[in-house]
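FAQ: What does a multi-protein file look like?

Like this. Sequence, then tokens, then the next protein.
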Amino acid sequence: MTHLVHPEIPYFPAFKPIEEQTLFTVAADRFYAKEYTLASQYGTHIDAPVYFWEEGRSFDELSLKELVLPLYVIHKEEQVKQNHDYRLSVEDILAFEQKHGKISPDSFVAFASGWSARFGEPADFYNQDEDGNSHTPGWSL
């Protein structure tokens, strides 16, 4: 679930691209270091509640127990191949439970879309139409 972070990786369009600067090199300075400037939600990450709710907690306020949970993965790779705008819905979750049993309330549910295979090619990842609108899978409201 992780990818290398570099200036060419896809990013949310409201952010600026990563800025990368070499500060020291082994040849000249006998030490190698780079400096990166990027938005906090760049690349693969976990969203803290505070990112979406002013009264939400930040990561330093979450316990490790809250971050390590039973995992359920709902696979919809085939549906996404047919519809790049596929939205995982409540109906999908209910169908999953019908087949695999009830999802416990203290668990993490992941949506496997297969979209990460496009990560190395930004144009494929963004999948924009002629008007510049991206067509990518996600979660329904």
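And here is the next protein:
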Amino acid sequence: MINYDYIILGSGLSGLLSAYRMANDAWFDDKSVVIIDKEIKNQNDRTWCFWEEANGEFDSILSKTWEKAFIGNQDFQQSFEMNPYLYKMIRSSDFYQLVFDAISAKSNFTFINDKILSWKTNGNSVEVQGKNKSYNGYYLLNSFFDVNPVLNQKNTLI
């Protein structure tokens, strides 16, 4: 039994940005989408900075922008204009609010608090095992970083 068309694991930047894009794309209006994470993101736990020309999609939630840069040390100092670029900063709480506002306006989006234990493919579907329940879907967007393969790797020479 398929519960969802799309399952998004994790509500960090990549998971929420994927959900935001899907919520703003009419193609997904008739698709069921669930985001599963062990916590609801609503605190200011991160900041993201990036370079961008002029106006951008997330300008309404920018915390700060810089038009000039400074490079310096004890022997050298120089400020310069970065035109046409701006250095922009977004606080995570503002981003979370923007995304959750967008997805809560869509009846086909669901957010579930659950700790993800595992996931596996079953033919043309995927099964996600949470601590509280199992979830089934056609497609999985996994934004969890699994540290175990990194920790368990062996030093090899190729």
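Q: Is there any per-entry metadata?
A: Some entries carry free-text notes. For the entry above: The mean pLDDT is 91.
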